Amino acid sequence: MQRFAGRIILLWGWRRALVAFAAGALAVLAQAPYDFFAVCFVSFPVLVWLLDGATGEASDGWLRRLRPAFATGWWFGFGYFLAGLWWIGQALLVEADTFAWALPFAVVGIPFALAFFYGFATVVARLFWSSDIGRIAALAFGFGLAEWLRDFLFTGFPWNAVGYAAMPVPLLMQSVSVTGMSGMNALAVFVFSLPALIAARRHLKLGLALFVILVAAHVGFGYVRLAAPVESSRAIDVRIVQPAVDLSEKWDASVRDRIFATLLGISGKAPEQGHAKPQLILWPETSVPFLFTERPDALTALGDMLAYGQMLIAGVVREEGGSANAGSRYYNSVVAINDKGEIVDAVDKVHLVPFGEYLPFADLFERLGIGQLVAGPMNFAAGNERHPIGVPGGLRAAPFICYEVIFPDLVAADAASADLIVNVTNDAWFGDTPGPYQHFRQAQIRAAENGMPLLRAANNGISAVVDSRGRIVDALAVDARGAIDAHVPVSGRFLLPAEQRRINGLLIMLLFALIAFTLNVRQRLRVN
Fold first, then answer.
1. Is residue 200 scored above 80 in pLDDT?
2. Which end of the chain has fewer beta carbons closer than 10 Å to its terminal beta carbon, N or C?
3. Which of 40, 147, 250, 349 does the annotation list as catalytic?
4. Are residues 321 and 433 in the same domain?
5. Which domain holds residue 335?
6. 285 is annotated as an active-site residue
């Protein structure tokens, strides 16, 4: 092992970049749908050894001395994000004649930009580097800080955060209800990197002890939490509809009535054996294939379909304005419709997808002939606020549209005043690629994190009911058409408030920073 680590440390130039790229790409196998988290015990030790050798010339200024560390982290991140996000390009092939030209920019450009976060992580780590376990703590702090920044900088895109690799099954998802994602990201990198100590054998016994303690705590806490009964005094019967509408027909006016009839037919069928009539029916994102302002008869049809006391929550395109002095504004929304066919509540999507749902710097791009890429025939406006929707049984559902559910703090803020998490999405843009599976995993972990059931409706999958511990009650496979009927107990009890989870995550990162700083200073004093 020492000889192998030594070869990695001494790599330079394109060989160092290639190994860093390969280590990052390999780490993606720890994410859904592969869930082979053991690869991280290879990828991150290799990254540690690469950083051991990422030193500049002593005569260089401190900034130039950090360039090898940044390059190593950037290549690791580029491999990680390229292998993990290539499926984004699938959305551009839905209308290939129009958007195929943008494929290289989506498939390569997004990983290229995201890799800067991991370059930043390794620079931060290298500032506190030492020759012992301190460098493992430094790397954990660097990645924890980078993943925290990735949650909100430049509108935020915390997809495939490293911490998800440590949570492939519900048993291993429970710790996030204490640490939050910030703490989980840092802890995951620390544990994954500990095997790097085998090469130098400094602090090896300490590293082994910490490895056993942290893994045992992670697994043990999960076992105890899953074994404890979920106390619930209330419940709701739900039906989740997955229509599997072909995106080539999504906005085709000639087939809108057929799509709507399919939704009505699945929603109005008799309950499955052993299930009660649903109180709440859930349709996916933008599932209604027209504007209600243009088709008021559709609300009448929904009122006829819904039985007494039932409610429908449906993803729609909502229109406002359209006066002589101003054009219409369109929102990606969910609406709640009662058994009389009346819209009783609506929530607009606040966190829009750049280039997918709106065009940033629209005037500039439109002058260049570049328009919105994938979401539909219009640009969307962002909503101003989100609030829970009252549903049958006196319960409150916090709705999140599409990738809003991947933002831990955003979900936690609204889930605090709700009883259920509702996620509507349309992942058909990405076909049967890793994308829908990764999206579902992150939504699943929001349930365990907040101690709250999740109801998820996706156009072509993955639609599911997930309990308050992250366990899948029932689900529909990608490209399946049908419905899920489920009786969902609701406890409304989270283990820790969101603010406490944020504090815990910050304390974990600061602890790693303190360890790294202390050992770095001690090594400098010893050398001097």
1. no
2. C
3. 349
4. yes
5. 234-492
6. yes
**65-122 residue pLDDT tens:** 889 999 999 999 999 999 999 999 887 776 666 667 778 888 999 999 999 999 999 9
Number of domains in the chain: 2
**What is the rounded CA–CA span in Å between residue 357 and residue 351?**
10
Q: Is there a catalytic annotation at residue 402?
A: yes
40 is catalytic: no
Which residues have a Cβ under 8 Å from the Cβ of 69 and sit 6 or more positions away? 51, 54, 122, 123, 125, 126
Q: Are residues 122 and 260 in the same domain?
A: no
Q: Which pLDDT score, from 0 to 100, does residue 360 have?
A: 58
pLDDT bracket for residue 391 (50, 70, 90)? very high
pTM of the model: 0.93
**Do 504 and 484 share a structural domain?**
no
Q: How far, in Å, are 44, 91, 245, 429, 475 from residue 248 at the CA level?
A: 42, 12, 9, 10, 25
Q: Is 309 helix (H, G, I), strand (E, B) or coil?
A: coil
If asked whether residues 504 and 480 sit together in one domain, one would say no
Q: Please state, as a whole number, how many other Cβ atoms lie within 10 Å of the Cβ of residue 427.
A: 27
pLDDT interval class at 424 (50, 70, 90): very high
Q: Do 365 and 486 have their domain in common?
A: yes
Clarify whether residues 161 and 288 are in a common domain: no
